[in-house]
Structure formats: C-alpha cells, structure tokens
Design a protein that fits this description.
Layout: E1 3-14, E2 17-28, E3 32-36, H1 43-51, E4 58-63, E5 66-67, H2 73-78, E6 81-84, H3 96-102, H4 105-109, H5 121-126, H6 128-132, H7 143-156, E7 161-165, H8 173-190, E8 193-197, H9 201-207, E9 210-215, E10 218-224, H10 230-234
Parallel strand pairs: 3-8, 3-9, 6-7, 7-8
Antiparallel strand pairs: 1-2, 1-4, 4-5, 9-10
C-alpha cells in the first residue's frame, strides 16, 4: 500500500526547548490515524510542523513520496496538505461562501482550478447546512456551523492529506455525528488521507484505522483501532 505521509526522525524545538523527539510515523494513502495524548504533549506542534508553520529541528516529512521538509507553509498547501486548526479560525466578517472561497487559493496556485470557478458542489453536499447559510457572516455562526465551515474550507483545496486538530471540541453531539459522516465520505469518496488529533476517543475509534499516543513529545505506543479498544488505550492519556 502506498504511503501518503511519512515522518522520519522528526524533531521540533521552541528556542532551546525540545518539544518533539525523533517522531517516526507513516499513514497509507486513504488511511485515517488518530493522534492522541494529554494536553501539552506536542500534538498540535506536530501538526504545525507538518503544515510548515513550525520549523523542524531535524528529520524529514514526505507527502506522497515528495520531501516537503524545506517548503514554506503555502507551498505545502499546494503540495496537497489541508489543515483544520483547533478553534476553527474562520474569517468572521466574510460570508460562509467567501470563507469557503479562500480555501480555493491552494487549488488555484496548483494550476488545477480558480476562485472564479466557485465552491465545489461536493462541499455543500457534505455539509448541506452551509448551503442554506452561505450568505451569513462567519462570525455569527454557531460553533458546530463554524467547524463544518472550517472543514469545508480545507477541503475546497482538494487536499491529499487532511489534518484536523480537535474537531469535536465544544460541538453538540448531533453535529459531531454530522462531522463523522462527512469525514467518512471524504475518505471513502474523495480518497483523502486523514490525521486527526482528538480527545474524544470513541469518536476517533469510530473511523480511524490506527492510533498513535504521544507523551512528552515522544511516541510511546502505536496500534490498530481494530485490535485495541479505546478503553485499552485511554489510561495512557488520562482520559
């Protein structure tokens, strides 16, 4: 099976303080990996290192066989990395449609589309609510609507790899189910590889193939969600 994301001895520091230590990790194309661990162990830093906003101290990152370690963040977006940050970070004064259009920038820069072409219809099929409220300003949306918008914006650039940081945080259960259904479709129908940071282990286990536990910036355990239950792993992250 083709490897979509490969991290080889990835290390990251903030100044003189090492945060991540020699991370080795692989996700096959079309796979889903859940990255779990207590707050402050380096999960978000790992995502930021992959997307290029946090410089590496060592090691390398390969996406679909290409070494992207030296690329800037916008160049990694062109290479097919999409990111949904914790807290969503949508543009509050832009409409839903305009927010989604900002996600088309990576696609246009890749030479495979343009903002003028508009938001792909499959985004609205994944999240029908967004079509209903596409003229509404982002700042007045509920948390669940903003999360759907943030995911839709990332998908508008047609990423090969989608990174999500705590997508269920502060979201109502019925919207969590909608997000889960959408991510299943993204994987099944669009073939997108997914890496998700998630504290809600039952959600992560519902569609992830594999998991990885971080403690103090190091991987301490990896495994299959098919052979190990969330309950068997929860004690490692104090959840």
């Amino acid at each position: 099976m083709t490897t979509l994301l490969k991290l080889d001895q990835l290390s990251t520091s903030y100044g003189q303080s090492r945060v991540l230590w020699n991370i080795d990790l692989e996700i096959p194309a079309g796979g889903v990996l859940a990255l779990i661990g207590r707050n402050g162990v380096g999960k978000t830093t790992l995502l930021k290192s992959i997307i290029g906003v946090q410089p590496l101290s060592g090691g390398s990152i390969h996406v679909d066989g290409r070494d992207v370690s030296a690329l800037k963040a916008f160049e990694r977006a062109r290479a097919g990395i999409g990111f949904v940050p914790q807290g969503r970070h949508i543009f509050p004064h832009l409409s839903v449609a305009e927010n989604l259009e900002t996600g088309l920038a990576a696609l246009a820069e890749r030479g495979t589309g343009s903002i003028k072409a508009g938001v792909p219809e499959h985004i609205y099929e994944l999240f029908p609510k967004l079509k209903q409220i596409k003229d509404r300003k982002g700042g007045v949306l509920s948390g669940g609507e903003q999360q759907q918008l943030a995911i839709g914006r990332a998908l508008a650039g047609q990423p090969k790899l989608l990174l999500l940081d705590e997508p269920t945080e502060g979201i109502q259960p019925n919207v969590v189910q909608q997000i889960e259904d959408a991510l299943r479709s993204v994987r099944r129908d669009l073939g997108v590889t997914i890496m998700i940071v998630e504290q809600y282990l039952d959600f992560a286990w519902s569609f992830a193939d594999t998991y990885c536990v971080l403690q103090r910036g190091r991987i301490v355990r990896q495994g299959s969600t098919a052979t190990e239950s969330a309950a068997e792993v929860a004690h490692l992250v104090n959840i």
